[in-house]
């Protein structure tokens, strides 16, 4: 009898798994940054079945190292301060326990996830929706640059999780539009950025709206000293996780090219012709330089988008959305998109302007090599940057090599089999037709991308995963 029971319950177990609509398997090589796990399974954490369904349908098979460390502790309700490398799955490390704890039967706001930028808020809320897809959970994203009234309307319905940037969330809390008195989970992603002087007073005021008994979870790849005073003041015996035995990603090879300022564009042109670019992000140190460079790149005949904080939000959103979907190969931007942005198809990061500090450098180059995949970071170094290059190398304990005449393709191109058969091989960073070099579209769009882009559709290597993330 008991045998029959066991059999039928195990059939039942298999049934729900067989009915999942799983994305195509990602067969690319992965580094130890994500493979060096203890061997846990998501099922080991006794999560709700609906949550497990969302996890598996997002393409996650097993927890990454930071997820193994974070999920079981977060489920106990303890405060956490967690540090793990870029692209190793911190988002799901806090979203999975946050979703598990939500009581969907209650109309109350139960969790706040704060992030420093609007684009990251959009991305993070999408991850919540993807993983929580079968849970009947209402997630709301709220950021500056959008209509406050729309947010107020939206809050008249039940919302369980708020994902937002600090200023707008505080605004809504001050107006009593969001009631955090029943919210037990306070999460800060990119916590060190949120605890920089510009944000700290807002964060402290926001915490004041939360009940005394709340769980505070902090995540980042970088935790400078500023975090300590917050920890001492607002966290109760936090469980500290630090998976950074080294700081840089094993899969990202770093090079520099020594150039004069006026040679930079020429150098970039050479890089475009030599590198196997699937998608690239090119960082500049000011909004002016972003726009100037985007124009130069277009003049050279390559398609590119650009984004920076002085653009209208709906233009920023459109660029972000379309770049994620692979409508353009290159994105020029400021440090607005340095932290947290997860675009799996980006395999090349170029620091057209070298960043000023080690944290910014680390986060920028971490936009490639997501989830243990391979990538290349190239730094254009002028005479003035020399000492900074040395300083950042020392601080990060890493080696930035002079760029070799020929770059080994195996360094940034993953298993070609993983490319969608309908897509051309990577590395075809073909110049656009010079005659079509018009400047149509809103700011952020250089040239007529739809017509002139190197190819239509996405460049994404594991399309299924990707399209779920963007909610398409
Ligand atoms: N367990 C998993 N299995 C497979 N893929 C995963 C898993 N966890 C996360 N990923 C994927 O890994 C990528 C990187 O995850 P995520 O953005 O959370 O990294 P992160 O640690 O927050 O990086 P950053 O420090 O840059 O913000 C995402 O595309 C995500 O979907
Ligand atoms: Mg992140």
Give the topology.
Blueprint: H1 2-18, H2 32-35, H3 49-57, H4 65-75, E1 80-83, H5 90-101, E2 111-114, H6 118-131, E3 139-142, H7 148-154, E4 161-164, H8 166-174, E5 185-189, H9 191-194, H10 200-207, E6 215-220, H11 226-234, E7 239-242, E8 252-258, H12 264-274, E9 279-283, H13 287-299, E10 304-307, H14 313-324, E11 330-333, E12 346-351, H15 358-365, E13 375-381, H16 386-396, E14 401-402, E15 445-446, H17 449-452, H18 463-469
Parallel strand pairs: 1-6, 1-7, 2-4, 2-5, 3-4, 5-6, 8-13, 8-14, 9-11, 9-12, 10-11, 12-13
Antiparallel strand pairs: 10-15
Bound molecules: adenosine-5'-triphosphate and magnesium ion.
Folded structure, characterized:
- Keywords: ATP-binding, Cytoplasm, Helicase, Hydrolase, Nucleotide-binding, RNA-binding, Translation regulation.
- The protein is of the alpha/beta class and 472 residues long.
- It folds into two domains: 22-240, P-loop containing nucleotide triphosphate hydrolases (Rossmann fold), CATH 3.40.50.300; 250-409, P-loop containing nucleotide triphosphate hydrolases (Rossmann fold), CATH 3.40.50.300.
- 36% of the residues lie in helices and 14% in strands.
- It has helices at 2-18, 32-35, 49-57, 65-75, 90-101, 118-131, 148-154, 166-174, 191-194, 200-207, 226-234, 264-274, 287-299, 313-324, 358-365, 386-396, 449-452, 463-469; strands at residues 80-83, 111-114, 139-142, 161-164, 185-189, 215-220, 239-242, 252-258, 279-283, 304-307, 330-333, 346-351, 375-381, 401-402, 445-446.
- Strands 14-8-13-12-9-11-10-15 form an eight-stranded mixed beta sheet, sandwiched between helices. Strands 3-4-2-5-6-1-7 form a seven-stranded parallel beta sheet, sandwiched between helices.
- Strand 10, helix 14 and strand 11 form a beta-alpha-beta unit.
- The model is unreliable at 1-5, 414-440 and 447-472 (pLDDT under 50).
- Magnesium ion is lined by residues 90-91, 189, 340.
- The site of magnesium ion has 4 residues, from helix 5.
């Amino acid at each position: 009898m008991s045998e029959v029971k066991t059999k039928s319950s195990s059939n039942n177990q298999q049934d729900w798994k067989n009915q999942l609509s799983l994305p195509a398997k990602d067969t690319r090589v992965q580094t130890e940054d994500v493979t060096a796990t203890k061997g846990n399974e998501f099922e080991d954490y006794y999560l709700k079945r609906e949550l497990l369904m969302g996890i598996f349908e997002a393409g996650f098979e097993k927890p990454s190292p930071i997820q193994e460390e974070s999920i079981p502790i977060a489920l106990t309700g303890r405060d956490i301060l967690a540090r793990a490398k870029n692209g190793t799955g911190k988002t799901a490390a806090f979203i999975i326990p946050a979703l598990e704890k939500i009581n969907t039967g209650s109309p109350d706001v139960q969790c706040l996830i704060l992030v420093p930028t609007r684009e990251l808020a959009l991305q993070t809320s999408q991850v919540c929706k993807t993983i929580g897809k079968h849970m009947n959970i209402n997630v709301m994203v709220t950021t500056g640059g959008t209509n406050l009234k729309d947010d107020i309307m939206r809050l008249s319905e039940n919302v369980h999780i708020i994902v937002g940037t600090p200023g707008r969330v505080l605004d809504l809390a001050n107006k009593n539009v969001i009631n955090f008195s029943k919210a037990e989970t306070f999460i800060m992603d990119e916590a060190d950025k949120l605890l920089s002087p510009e944000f700290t007073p807002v964060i402290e005021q926001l915490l004041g709206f939360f009940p005394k008994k709340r769980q505070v979870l902090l995540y980042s790849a970088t935790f400078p000293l500023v975090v300590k005073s917050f920890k001492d003041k607002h966290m109760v015996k936090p469980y500290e996780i630090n998976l950074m035995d080294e700081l840089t990603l094993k899969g990202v090879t770093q090079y520099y090219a020594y150039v004069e300022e006026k040679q930079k564009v020429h150098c970039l042109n050479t890089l475009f012709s030599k590198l196997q670019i699937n998608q690239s992000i090119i960082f500049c140190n000011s909004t002016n330089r972003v726009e100037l460079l985007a124009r130069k790149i277009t003049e050279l005949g390559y398609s590119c988008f650009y984004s920076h904080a002085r653009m209208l939000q709906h233009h920023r959103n459109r660029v972000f959305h379309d770049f994620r979907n692979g409508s353009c190969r290159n994105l020029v931007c400021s440090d607005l998109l340095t932290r947290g942005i997860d675009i799996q198809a980006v395999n090349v990061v170029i620091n057209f302007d070298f960043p000023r500090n080690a944290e910014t450098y680390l986060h920028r180059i971490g936009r490639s090599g997501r989830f243990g995949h391979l990538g290349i970071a190239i730094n254009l170094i002028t005479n003035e940057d020399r000492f900074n290059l040395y300083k950042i190398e020392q601080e990060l304990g890493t080696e930035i090599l002079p760029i070799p005449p020929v770059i080994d393709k195996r360094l940034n191109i993953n298993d070609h089999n993983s490319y969608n058969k309908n897509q051309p091989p990577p590395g075809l960073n073909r110049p656009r037709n010079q005659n079509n070099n018009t400047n149509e579209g809103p700011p952020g769009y250089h040239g007529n991308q739809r017509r002139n882009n190197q190819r239509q559709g996405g460049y994404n290597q594991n399309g299924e995963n990707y399209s779920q993330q963007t909610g398409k």
